[in-house]
Amino acid sequence: MASETSLDRTDFAILRLLTKDAWLSNKQIAAAVGLAPSSCHERIKSLRARGVLLGAHAEVNLEAIGLALEAVLFVQLGKLEVEVVDDFVSSTATIPEVRNVFLVSGRSDLIVDVAVRDMQHLKEIISKHFNRHDVVLRVETSVVFDSRRQHATPLP
Prior knowledge:
Radius of gyration: 20 Å
Strand order of the largest sheet: 2-3-1-4
Oligomer: single chain
Distance between the termini: 17 Å
């Protein structure tokens, strides 16, 4: 992965634009940063190749697709062996309803963000993927009533 020092002001300008709107065309980005479209295209290709730009993702209205409930699960694990934790985090990340998995310090070992249809669906996910798993000691659940997301990355 590229170090911060290998990126210049133009690279950061491109990253700022793309984190705010990944649908900008190469021509729009080039005009905004003062590059020829071909040079801008090469910069973006380089940012991808160096592992700085990892992808672009669409923001979806969860309610519009039938996922009316979002919850945060605070998971405490019984075994904190590296391999066991890595396997559990990896398997948790593959659950379709899981939006984010964070391995954290503190009272919980994992924080898991899920999007589900309703309370019954949430109960099924917790029961099937967490409560029945040997490594899980405890799951505490908080329903998200409202949220605000910041998609832009803080850049120098």
